[in-house]
């Protein structure tokens, strides 16, 4: 199981600094949508430049104009880019095509998708399926990703799963049971910890021990 | 009926230059999602600085992290910001709250919304409802906004309507009949015209004449 560090609501320099503190414990680096909308592709370029050996996920949250946005992300150094699962299927098709051409990966952000939409997306076997409880749902409704939704669908289709949304060391065991994600996406549990290096190291240990 | 010029797939300097050529004929300036993701909030700031008297629409396409994104857009000079109609309702609520606090406007991008979702959104009377055929749907499937979907729903609820997606002088009359939008959003029919000044002036004339 890989740990994807989500960088949001930060200046680029601070995002680099915090990643530097935890880089031994994390696998993938997510340039959050808030960085992309605030600073543009400079955010992706600078993170890739600072951590060339890491997998960079550009959280583009594409929902239209897929060719332009995905080519832009990959050319800026992203190894994975996200598209919304609620997009028209033609948009998903373009993302898959561009990623294949660049030999990169697509992550579906399943935020607010219906079960029918998720079933349709199962046809795209090369994508990573990100089960996502949004920041707004967390902060306003107190929801957390417990991984209950769509778990069976993912398992029976043997797709690669990522999980995001308020994940902590404490919620890891339940999440593993219900979703068995190959990527856990963790933001504030690391970036807002009083000691990010220690928080990331502990999370890494829990992942390695299979807790 | 107002004309909103959509600026996409352009450098900021070129976007300003083309807007300068047509500013007498257009009412609102949309900083497209592609500019925001490529250049960040600098795109919104520079367009507002260049055209302080115009209404600036930041096509944020927010779907999460609404407070952060909307405050960022309004502080950068946007007068209107967009949120996806397919977002969780908690996200929509936050957008409305932030816009009210800043005395600004919210535009709902109805791309790929179900009829049920549109009905729920009708409760937000202060928003502008943008009926949107996406770039990907246009370019890959040849779709155009003919305004047939949701037209009756908008009329009976008396909400403010915008229309986007492949709109030209030729399609204006049909669109007026079916959707009666108060804002028509036009991008490439102006920005990619051989003579943008003339194309915008003709569109303005057609709008004034009620064609």
UniProtKB/TrEMBL annotation, chains A, B:
<dbReference type="GO" id="GO:0033982">
    <property type="term" value="F:3-dehydro-L-gulonate-6-phosphate decarboxylase activity"/>
</dbReference>
<keyword id="KW-0456">Lyase</keyword>
<protein>
    <recommendedName>
        <fullName>3-hexulose-6-phosphate synthase</fullName>
        <ecNumber>4.1.2.43</ecNumber>
    </recommendedName>
</protein>
<dbReference type="GO" id="GO:0019854">
    <property type="term" value="P:L-ascorbic acid catabolic process"/>
</dbReference>
<keyword id="KW-0554">One-carbon metabolism</keyword>
<feature type="domain" description="Orotidine 5'-phosphate decarboxylase">
    <location>
        <begin position="2"/>
        <end position="203"/>
    </location>
</feature>
<dbReference type="InterPro" id="IPR013785">
    <property type="entry name" value="Aldolase_TIM"/>
</dbReference>
<dbReference type="Pfam" id="PF00215">
    <property type="entry name" value="OMPdecase"/>
</dbReference>
<dbReference type="InterPro" id="IPR017553">
    <property type="entry name" value="3-hexulose-6-phosphate_synth"/>
</dbReference>
<dbReference type="GO" id="GO:0006207">
    <property type="term" value="P:'de novo' pyrimidine nucleobase biosynthetic process"/>
</dbReference>
<comment type="pathway">
    <text>One-carbon metabolism; formaldehyde assimilation via RuMP pathway; D-fructose 6-phosphate from D-ribulose 5-phosphate and formaldehyde: step 1/2.</text>
</comment>
<dbReference type="GO" id="GO:0006730">
    <property type="term" value="P:one-carbon metabolic process"/>
</dbReference>
<keyword id="KW-0119">Carbohydrate metabolism</keyword>
<dbReference type="InterPro" id="IPR011060">
    <property type="entry name" value="RibuloseP-bd_barrel"/>
</dbReference>
<dbReference type="InterPro" id="IPR041710">
    <property type="entry name" value="HPS/KGPDC"/>
</dbReference>
<dbReference type="GO" id="GO:0043801">
    <property type="term" value="F:hexulose-6-phosphate synthase activity"/>
</dbReference>
<comment type="similarity">
    <text>Belongs to the HPS/KGPDC family. HPS subfamily.</text>
</comment>
<dbReference type="InterPro" id="IPR001754">
    <property type="entry name" value="OMPdeCOase_dom"/>
</dbReference>
<dbReference type="GO" id="GO:0004590">
    <property type="term" value="F:orotidine-5'-phosphate decarboxylase activity"/>
</dbReference>
């Amino acid at each position: 199981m890989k740990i994807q560090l989500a960088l949001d609501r930060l200046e680029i320099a601070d995002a680099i600094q915090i990643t530097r503190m935890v880089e031994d414990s994390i696998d993938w680096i997510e340039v959050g949508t808030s960085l992309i909308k605030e600073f543009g592709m400079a955010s992706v370029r600078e993170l890739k430049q600072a951590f060339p050996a890491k997998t960079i996920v550009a959280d583009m949250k594409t929902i239209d104009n897929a060719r332009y946005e995905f080519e832009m992300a990959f050319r800026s150094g992203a190894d994975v880019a996200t598209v919304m699962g609620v997009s028209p299927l033609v948009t998903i098709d373009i993302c898959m095509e561009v990623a294949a051409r660049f030999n990169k990966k697509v992550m579906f952000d399943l935020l607010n998708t219906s079960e029918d939409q998720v079933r349709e997306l199962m046809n795209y076997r090369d994508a990573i399926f990100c089960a996502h409880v949004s920041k707004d749902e967390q902060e306003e409704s107190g929801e957390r990703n417990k991984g209950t939704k769509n778990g069976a669908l993912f398992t029976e289709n043997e797709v690669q799963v990522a999980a995001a949304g308020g994940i902590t060391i404490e919620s890891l065991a339940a999440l593993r049971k219900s979703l068995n994600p190959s990527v856990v996406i963790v933001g504030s549990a690391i970036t807002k910890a009083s000691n990010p290096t220690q928080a990331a190291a502990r999370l890494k240990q829990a992942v390695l021990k299979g807790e």
